[in-house]
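in:
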């Protein structure tokens, strides 16, 4: 057992207990969402003591150097003095430039950061409503093509943040956002390699960003994008993707609709797993990007790996649901 120092208190930790867990047990209102080391909303700072390596995985070197760490992944083995994160280092203001419904429950939100904002299409950012409430959303925009950040936000029933963004936020409002993170983005290399982009729901947001980024960086190989949806109405960028397929010869667009009716021209009666295998006939030659519901992403990842695709060529960004009572994806 060891302890942390927080709020001028010495707090004992059970073996294997995280900093976030013990602080929540002590009724401290620490910001958190996924509790899996992905969203980074639980970031804190150590002013004394040794930070476990796992607690800083995925953080920028500049943040590591300042002692920042992810409280949900931090299981110290020696005493650690921790404080709340400095918002000045982590957050920046952004102005709402567009607020448009793409479907009955998907909002396109375009933001203009008020300072230089570095990101890669396909990464995600946190939007903060209060100092204690944040949610993660993936970027559909491309830095070299767009002068805004584009997010696709699905309304979650009783979702504290998605309802706020859908119903209350207006053009011209100012929001707090956190630096982009995530490893699901296009990396130039083999310009002839075939790319498979598959996802469900608003998992389309990072996929369309990755596709546009790859094309902008001169990728010549085929780019196959599959958008899975429950209903035909959930294909919220259908015409945009059809237009992309007409404009760029290497870009191929497919739909996979679970409840397509008999009069629909959408894909039906075929699982998303089977669909990707029908396209990527020799997976070992492909690179894949998978986004959306965590269970589906993990299933697709397993399917591709078992079919011969190297795990190093599979990039994924599963949407992890907050553990809070009212959640956003």
């Amino acid at each position: 057992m060891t302890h942390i120092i927080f709020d001028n208190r010495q707090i004992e930790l059970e073996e294997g207990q995280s900093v976030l867990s013990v602080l929540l047990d002590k009724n401290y209102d620490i910001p958190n969402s996924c509790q899996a080391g992905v969203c980074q909303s639980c970031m804190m700072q150590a002013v004394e003591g040794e930070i476990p390596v796992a607690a800083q995985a995925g953080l920028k070197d500049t943040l590591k150097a300042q002692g920042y760490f992810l409280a949900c992944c931090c299981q110290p083995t020696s005493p650690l003095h921790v404080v709340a994160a400095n918002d000045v280092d982590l957050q920046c203001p952004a102005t709402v430039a567009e607020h448009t419904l793409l479907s009955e429950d998907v909002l396109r939100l375009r933001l203009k950061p008020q300072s230089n904002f570095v990101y890669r299409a396909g990464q995600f950012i946190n939007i903060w409503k209060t100092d204690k409430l944040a949610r993660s959303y993936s970027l559909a925009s491309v830095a070299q093509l767009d002068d805004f950040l584009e997010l696709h936000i699905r309304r979650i029933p009783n979702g504290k943040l998605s309802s706020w963004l859908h119903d209350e936020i207006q053009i011209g409002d100012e929001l707090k956002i956190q630096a982009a993170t995530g490893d699901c983005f296009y990396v130039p290399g083999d310009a002839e390699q075939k790319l498979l982009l598959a996802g469900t729901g608003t998992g389309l947001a990072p996929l369309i960003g990755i596709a546009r980024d790859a094309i902008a960086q001169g990728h010549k190989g085929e780019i196959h994008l599959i958008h899975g949806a429950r209903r035909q109405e959930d294909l919220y960028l259908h015409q945009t993707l059809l237009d992309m397929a007409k404009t760029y010869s290497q870009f191929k667009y497919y739909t996979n609709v679970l409840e397509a009716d008999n009069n629909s021209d959408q894909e039906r009666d075929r699982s998303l797993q089977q669909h990707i295998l029908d396209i990527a006939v020799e997976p070992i030659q492909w690179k894949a990007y998978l986004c959306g519901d965590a269970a589906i992403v993990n299933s697709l990842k397993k399917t591709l790996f078992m079919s011969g695709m190297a795990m190093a060529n599979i990039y994924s960004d599963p949407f992890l649901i907050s553990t809070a009572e009212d959640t956003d994806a």
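note: The domain at 2-85 is CATH 3.10.20.30 (Ubiquitin-like (UB roll)).
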